[in-house]
Amino acid sequence: MTAQPAYLLSEAEYLQRERQAEFKSEYLNGEVYAMAGASREHNQISTNFVVSLGAQLLEKPCGVYSSDMKVRTRTDKINKFSYPDVVVTCGDEQFEDESGDVLLNPLVIIEVLSASTEAYDRGLKFFHYQLLPSLQEYLLVAQDYCRVEKYQRQADKQWVYSEFHDMQDVVEISTLQCRVRVADIYRRVL
C-alpha cells in the first residue's frame, strides 16, 4: 500500500506559497511536485515559439505566455495547477482570480520535452489537459533532435495527430491561424 503524504495543501495554500516561492511547483489534488530547471535548448525553443506566435498574433486579441503562467484543470476528481512551456489564449481570457497568473481557458499548449518529463508530458499531463474544454491544440517538441508533434481536437472530441521531422516543414496551428517553420522553432538550438 502506498503511503499518503503527511499533509495535503489546499489550493489556496498552494497558490499563496507558489506566488512567493523561488522555484516552481505543480499541484495535483493537494500534493505539490517540484519542477526541474530547464536547459538552454529548452528555453530557446520556448522563446522561439513565444516570439513567432506573439508577432503573428500582435493585432489579435490573443495572449502568448511563457512558462510562468499556470493553467488550472478542475473536474470532480482532478484539481491541478500546471506550468506549460508556452500557452496561448484568444478572446475572453479567464483567470482564477485577480492575480491573473492562473489561466482557465487555454486554446493552445506547447510542451518542450526533456528526458525527465517526456513520459509525463505525453501521458498524464496530456490526459489532464484534454479535460480543458477550451484546449484545441497540444504540441510536443523534442529539444535534442528535429521532431514536433501536434494533437488537434476535432468536433467529435477526437484528437488528430501529425508530426514534423524536417527543418523545411511548416507547423500550422490552425486554431490561431498561425504558421511556424520548424527551422524557426529550432533556431539557435540545432
UniProtKB/TrEMBL annotation:
InterPro entries of this UniProt entry?
Nuclease_put_TT1808, Restrct_endonuc-II-like, Uma2
Record keywords: ATP-binding included?
no
User: Record's superkingdom?
Assistant: Bacteria
Listed GO molecular functions? endonuclease activity
Q: Can you give the residue ranges of the Putative restriction endonuclease domain?
A: 12-176
Q: Which CDD domains did the record assign?
A: DUF820-like
**Per the record's keyword annotation, is Nuclease included, yes or no?**
yes
The record, for Pfam families, names: Uma2
Keywords attached to this Swiss-Prot or TrEMBL record, sorted alphabetically, are: Endonuclease, Hydrolase, Nuclease, Plasmid
Q: Which PANTHER family match?
A: GLR1098 PROTEIN (PTHR36558), RESTRICTION ENDONUCLEASE DOMAIN-CONTAINING PROTEIN-RELATED (PTHR36558:SF1)
Which protein, by its recorded name, is this? Uma2 family endonuclease
- What is the organism of origin for this protein? Thiothrix fructosivorans
